[in-house]
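== Sequence entry ==
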Amino acid sequence: MGESSGMPAGAGQRGDRHREERHRGAVTLRNQAIPTSTADQRLLDSQGRGDWKTKDAWRALRILSEFVEGFDTLADLPPAVSVFGSARSKPDSPECRLAEELGGALARAGYAVITGGGPGVMEAANRGAGEAGGLSVGLGIELPFEQGLNDWVDLAIDFRYFFARKTMFVKYAQAFVVLPGGFGTLDELFEALTLVQTGKVTRFPVVLMGAEYWRGLLDWLRGTMAAEGKIGPVDLDLIRLTDDVNEAVRHIVEAEAVLSAEQEAVRAEAVARAATDQHAAAQAAPEGPAGQR
Protein backbone atom coordinates (compact mmCIF):
# COMPACT_ATOMS: atom_id res chain seq x y z
CA MET A 1 0.00 0.00 0.00
CA GLY A 2 1.38 3.44 -0.90
CA GLU A 3 2.00 6.30 1.46
CA SER A 4 -0.96 8.29 2.69
CA SER A 5 -0.90 12.04 2.30
CA GLY A 6 -3.07 12.46 5.35
CA MET A 7 -5.73 14.23 3.23
CA PRO A 8 -9.24 12.88 2.80
CA ALA A 9 -10.05 11.23 -0.50
CA GLY A 10 -10.79 13.75 -3.22
CA ALA A 11 -9.29 16.65 -1.28
CA GLY A 12 -7.43 19.07 -3.52
CA GLN A 13 -9.15 17.81 -6.63
CA ARG A 14 -11.72 20.58 -6.60
CA GLY A 15 -9.06 23.27 -6.34
CA ASP A 16 -6.95 21.64 -9.04
CA ARG A 17 -9.58 21.46 -11.75
CA HIS A 18 -10.18 24.33 -14.14
CA ARG A 19 -13.13 26.47 -13.16
CA GLU A 20 -15.24 28.52 -15.52
CA GLU A 21 -16.23 31.74 -13.84
CA ARG A 22 -18.67 34.57 -14.55
CA HIS A 23 -19.32 37.70 -12.52
CA ARG A 24 -22.65 39.48 -12.08
CA GLY A 25 -22.01 42.46 -9.88
CA ALA A 26 -21.46 41.06 -6.38
CA VAL A 27 -22.34 37.53 -7.52
CA THR A 28 -19.72 35.03 -8.77
CA LEU A 29 -20.91 31.98 -10.73
CA ARG A 30 -18.77 28.94 -11.45
CA ASN A 31 -19.15 25.75 -13.45
CA GLN A 32 -22.71 24.31 -13.32
CA ALA A 33 -24.08 27.49 -11.74
CA ILE A 34 -23.34 29.46 -14.93
CA PRO A 35 -26.58 29.79 -16.95
CA THR A 36 -26.61 28.75 -20.60
CA SER A 37 -28.00 32.12 -21.75
CA THR A 38 -27.30 35.78 -21.00
CA ALA A 39 -29.65 38.40 -19.57
CA ASP A 40 -29.89 40.06 -23.01
CA GLN A 41 -30.83 36.76 -24.63
CA ARG A 42 -33.59 36.14 -22.12
CA LEU A 43 -34.88 39.70 -22.44
CA LEU A 44 -35.00 39.67 -26.25
CA ASP A 45 -36.18 36.08 -26.76
CA SER A 46 -39.58 36.28 -28.45
CA GLN A 47 -40.17 32.57 -27.78
CA GLY A 48 -40.58 33.26 -24.08
CA ARG A 49 -43.71 35.40 -24.31
CA GLY A 50 -45.32 33.48 -21.49
CA ASP A 51 -42.74 34.90 -19.11
CA TRP A 52 -43.33 38.55 -19.98
CA LYS A 53 -46.07 39.28 -17.47
CA THR A 54 -44.29 37.59 -14.60
CA LYS A 55 -40.63 38.38 -15.28
CA ASP A 56 -40.24 41.48 -17.46
CA ALA A 57 -41.45 43.87 -14.76
CA TRP A 58 -38.60 42.64 -12.56
CA ARG A 59 -36.20 42.90 -15.49
CA ALA A 60 -37.22 46.54 -15.85
CA LEU A 61 -36.05 47.20 -12.30
CA ARG A 62 -32.77 45.41 -13.00
CA ILE A 63 -32.29 47.51 -16.16
CA LEU A 64 -33.02 50.67 -14.18
CA SER A 65 -30.47 49.61 -11.58
CA GLU A 66 -27.80 49.33 -14.31
CA PHE A 67 -28.46 52.89 -15.45
CA VAL A 68 -28.39 54.16 -11.85
CA GLU A 69 -25.13 52.29 -11.17
CA GLY A 70 -23.53 53.64 -14.34
CA PHE A 71 -24.65 57.23 -13.82
CA ASP A 72 -23.61 57.23 -10.17
CA THR A 73 -20.22 55.66 -10.81
CA LEU A 74 -19.24 57.77 -13.82
CA ALA A 75 -20.75 61.12 -12.80
CA ASP A 76 -17.41 62.54 -11.62
CA LEU A 77 -15.39 61.17 -14.52
CA PRO A 78 -13.00 63.74 -16.08
CA PRO A 79 -13.24 64.44 -19.83
CA ALA A 80 -12.99 61.05 -21.53
CA VAL A 81 -12.63 59.36 -24.91
CA SER A 82 -14.20 55.99 -25.75
CA VAL A 83 -11.86 53.68 -27.67
CA PHE A 84 -13.22 50.66 -29.57
CA GLY A 85 -11.51 47.75 -31.30
CA SER A 86 -11.22 43.99 -31.51
CA ALA A 87 -10.88 41.76 -28.46
CA ARG A 88 -9.20 39.22 -30.77
CA SER A 89 -6.22 41.36 -31.76
CA LYS A 90 -2.86 40.03 -30.61
CA PRO A 91 -0.69 42.18 -28.31
CA ASP A 92 1.97 42.59 -31.03
CA SER A 93 -0.52 43.49 -33.79
CA PRO A 94 -0.32 46.93 -35.46
CA GLU A 95 -3.70 47.97 -34.02
CA CYS A 96 -2.70 47.04 -30.45
CA ARG A 97 0.53 49.00 -30.73
CA LEU A 98 -1.45 51.93 -32.12
CA ALA A 99 -4.06 51.66 -29.34
CA GLU A 100 -1.41 51.64 -26.63
CA GLU A 101 0.24 54.73 -28.09
CA LEU A 102 -3.17 56.40 -28.40
CA GLY A 103 -4.11 55.60 -24.78
CA GLY A 104 -0.92 57.23 -23.54
CA ALA A 105 -1.37 60.32 -25.71
CA LEU A 106 -4.99 60.76 -24.57
CA ALA A 107 -3.95 60.45 -20.92
CA ARG A 108 -1.23 63.06 -21.36
CA ALA A 109 -3.82 65.37 -22.98
CA GLY A 110 -5.97 65.08 -19.84
CA TYR A 111 -8.53 62.50 -20.98
CA ALA A 112 -9.67 59.35 -19.27
CA VAL A 113 -9.82 56.35 -21.59
CA ILE A 114 -13.02 54.27 -21.74
CA THR A 115 -13.03 50.82 -23.34
CA GLY A 116 -15.09 47.65 -23.13
CA GLY A 117 -12.55 46.46 -20.59
CA GLY A 118 -11.66 43.28 -22.47
CA PRO A 119 -8.48 41.98 -24.12
CA GLY A 120 -6.92 42.93 -27.45
CA VAL A 121 -7.25 46.55 -28.56
CA MET A 122 -9.20 47.43 -25.42
CA GLU A 123 -6.46 46.19 -23.12
CA ALA A 124 -3.82 47.99 -25.17
CA ALA A 125 -5.64 51.33 -24.90
CA ASN A 126 -6.19 50.86 -21.16
CA ARG A 127 -2.55 49.93 -20.71
CA GLY A 128 -1.33 53.00 -22.61
CA ALA A 129 -3.49 55.26 -20.46
CA GLY A 130 -2.45 53.55 -17.24
CA GLU A 131 1.25 53.69 -17.95
CA ALA A 132 0.93 57.40 -18.77
CA GLY A 133 -0.72 58.06 -15.41
CA GLY A 134 -4.24 58.49 -16.77
CA LEU A 135 -7.55 57.04 -15.59
CA SER A 136 -8.49 53.80 -17.34
CA VAL A 137 -12.18 52.79 -17.43
CA GLY A 138 -13.63 49.43 -18.47
CA LEU A 139 -17.31 48.84 -19.19
CA GLY A 140 -17.68 45.07 -19.30
CA ILE A 141 -20.61 43.03 -20.61
CA GLU A 142 -22.03 39.61 -19.81
CA LEU A 143 -21.33 37.30 -22.77
CA PRO A 144 -21.86 33.58 -23.39
CA PHE A 145 -18.06 33.31 -23.31
CA GLU A 146 -16.34 35.05 -20.42
CA GLN A 147 -13.79 37.69 -21.43
CA GLY A 148 -13.10 39.24 -18.04
CA LEU A 149 -11.72 42.68 -17.36
CA ASN A 150 -8.13 43.33 -18.27
CA ASP A 151 -5.58 44.17 -15.58
CA TRP A 152 -5.14 47.80 -16.70
CA VAL A 153 -8.67 48.92 -15.81
CA ASP A 154 -8.82 51.28 -12.81
CA LEU A 155 -12.60 51.75 -12.73
CA ALA A 156 -14.86 48.95 -13.91
CA ILE A 157 -18.58 48.34 -14.30
CA ASP A 158 -20.03 45.00 -15.46
CA PHE A 159 -23.29 45.26 -17.39
CA ARG A 160 -25.92 42.67 -18.20
CA TYR A 161 -27.58 44.72 -20.95
CA PHE A 162 -25.87 46.09 -24.05
CA PHE A 163 -28.09 49.15 -24.32
CA ALA A 164 -27.34 50.32 -20.78
CA ARG A 165 -23.62 49.90 -21.46
CA LYS A 166 -23.85 51.74 -24.79
CA THR A 167 -25.45 54.72 -23.08
CA MET A 168 -22.41 55.05 -20.81
CA PHE A 169 -19.99 54.91 -23.75
CA VAL A 170 -21.76 57.88 -25.35
CA LYS A 171 -22.84 59.91 -22.32
CA TYR A 172 -19.40 60.19 -20.74
CA ALA A 173 -17.24 60.59 -23.86
CA GLN A 174 -16.06 63.71 -25.67
CA ALA A 175 -15.03 61.63 -28.70
CA PHE A 176 -14.91 58.13 -30.16
CA VAL A 177 -11.79 56.50 -31.58
CA VAL A 178 -12.39 53.29 -33.52
CA LEU A 179 -9.61 50.86 -34.37
CA PRO A 180 -9.86 47.64 -36.40
CA GLY A 181 -12.50 45.30 -35.04
CA GLY A 182 -15.46 43.08 -35.82
CA PHE A 183 -19.24 43.31 -35.57
CA GLY A 184 -19.23 44.89 -32.12
CA THR A 185 -16.81 47.58 -33.23
CA LEU A 186 -18.88 48.32 -36.34
CA ASP A 187 -22.00 48.47 -34.18
CA GLU A 188 -20.42 51.13 -31.95
CA LEU A 189 -19.07 53.05 -34.96
CA PHE A 190 -22.38 53.31 -36.81
CA GLU A 191 -24.37 54.00 -33.67
CA ALA A 192 -22.07 56.93 -32.93
CA LEU A 193 -22.33 58.22 -36.50
CA THR A 194 -26.13 57.90 -36.43
CA LEU A 195 -26.43 59.79 -33.14
CA VAL A 196 -24.22 62.61 -34.41
CA GLN A 197 -25.85 62.73 -37.86
CA THR A 198 -29.36 62.97 -36.40
CA GLY A 199 -28.41 65.46 -33.71
CA LYS A 200 -29.31 63.10 -30.87
CA VAL A 201 -25.99 63.86 -29.17
CA THR A 202 -23.88 66.99 -28.99
CA ARG A 203 -21.55 67.03 -31.95
CA PHE A 204 -18.33 65.23 -31.19
CA PRO A 205 -15.56 63.75 -33.34
CA VAL A 206 -15.40 60.16 -34.56
CA VAL A 207 -11.87 59.09 -35.49
CA LEU A 208 -11.00 55.94 -37.44
CA MET A 209 -7.49 54.60 -36.98
CA GLY A 210 -6.02 51.81 -39.09
CA ALA A 211 -6.41 53.41 -42.52
CA GLU A 212 -5.71 50.28 -44.54
CA TYR A 213 -8.27 48.28 -42.57
CA TRP A 214 -11.05 50.84 -43.05
CA ARG A 215 -10.29 51.83 -46.66
CA GLY A 216 -12.69 49.33 -48.25
CA LEU A 217 -15.54 50.39 -45.98
CA LEU A 218 -14.97 54.09 -46.66
CA ASP A 219 -14.77 53.46 -50.42
CA TRP A 220 -18.14 51.71 -50.22
CA LEU A 221 -19.68 54.50 -48.13
CA ARG A 222 -18.45 57.04 -50.66
CA GLY A 223 -18.94 55.09 -53.90
CA THR A 224 -22.20 53.32 -53.12
CA MET A 225 -24.06 54.75 -50.16
CA ALA A 226 -23.34 58.44 -50.81
CA ALA A 227 -23.42 57.99 -54.60
CA GLU A 228 -26.97 56.63 -54.36
CA GLY A 229 -28.06 59.40 -52.03
CA LYS A 230 -28.54 57.16 -49.00
CA ILE A 231 -26.33 59.57 -47.03
CA GLY A 232 -25.32 63.14 -47.83
CA PRO A 233 -21.78 64.14 -48.83
CA VAL A 234 -21.50 66.11 -45.60
CA ASP A 235 -22.12 62.92 -43.59
CA LEU A 236 -18.75 61.57 -44.65
CA ASP A 237 -17.17 64.60 -43.00
CA LEU A 238 -18.26 63.19 -39.63
CA ILE A 239 -15.36 60.71 -39.89
CA ARG A 240 -11.68 61.59 -39.49
CA LEU A 241 -9.33 58.89 -40.83
CA THR A 242 -5.75 58.91 -39.60
CA ASP A 243 -2.96 56.67 -38.37
CA ASP A 244 -1.20 59.59 -36.71
CA VAL A 245 -1.84 59.51 -32.96
CA ASN A 246 -0.90 63.16 -32.52
CA GLU A 247 -3.31 64.19 -35.27
CA ALA A 248 -6.11 62.14 -33.72
CA VAL A 249 -5.63 63.71 -30.28
CA ARG A 250 -5.25 67.19 -31.75
CA HIS A 251 -8.51 66.74 -33.68
CA ILE A 252 -10.31 65.76 -30.47
CA VAL A 253 -8.85 68.67 -28.47
CA GLU A 254 -9.66 71.20 -31.20
CA ALA A 255 -13.21 69.90 -31.62
CA GLU A 256 -13.78 70.23 -27.88
CA ALA A 257 -12.42 73.79 -27.93
CA VAL A 258 -14.70 74.74 -30.84
CA LEU A 259 -17.73 73.24 -29.12
CA SER A 260 -16.89 75.01 -25.85
CA ALA A 261 -16.57 78.33 -27.68
CA GLU A 262 -19.94 77.79 -29.38
CA GLN A 263 -21.60 76.94 -26.07
CA GLU A 264 -20.04 79.99 -24.42
CA ALA A 265 -21.30 82.19 -27.25
CA VAL A 266 -24.82 80.81 -26.81
CA ARG A 267 -24.66 81.51 -23.06
CA ALA A 268 -23.38 85.04 -23.64
CA GLU A 269 -26.16 85.72 -26.13
CA ALA A 270 -28.77 84.44 -23.69
CA VAL A 271 -27.40 86.69 -20.91
CA ALA A 272 -27.38 89.72 -23.24
CA ARG A 273 -30.94 89.02 -24.39
CA ALA A 274 -32.14 88.69 -20.78
CA ALA A 275 -30.49 92.01 -19.88
CA THR A 276 -32.11 93.72 -22.89
CA ASP A 277 -35.54 92.34 -22.00
CA GLN A 278 -35.12 93.44 -18.37
CA HIS A 279 -34.15 96.95 -19.45
CA ALA A 280 -37.12 97.18 -21.84
CA ALA A 281 -39.48 95.99 -19.11
CA ALA A 282 -38.13 98.64 -16.69
CA GLN A 283 -38.64 101.39 -19.29
CA ALA A 284 -42.20 100.31 -19.93
CA ALA A 285 -43.22 100.10 -16.26
CA PRO A 286 -45.75 102.78 -15.05
CA GLU A 287 -44.38 105.54 -12.79
CA GLY A 288 -45.29 105.81 -9.09
CA PRO A 289 -47.69 108.40 -7.50
CA ALA A 290 -45.04 110.86 -6.23
CA GLY A 291 -45.05 113.26 -9.14
CA GLN A 292 -44.52 110.54 -11.58
CA ARG A 293 -46.84 109.70 -14.40
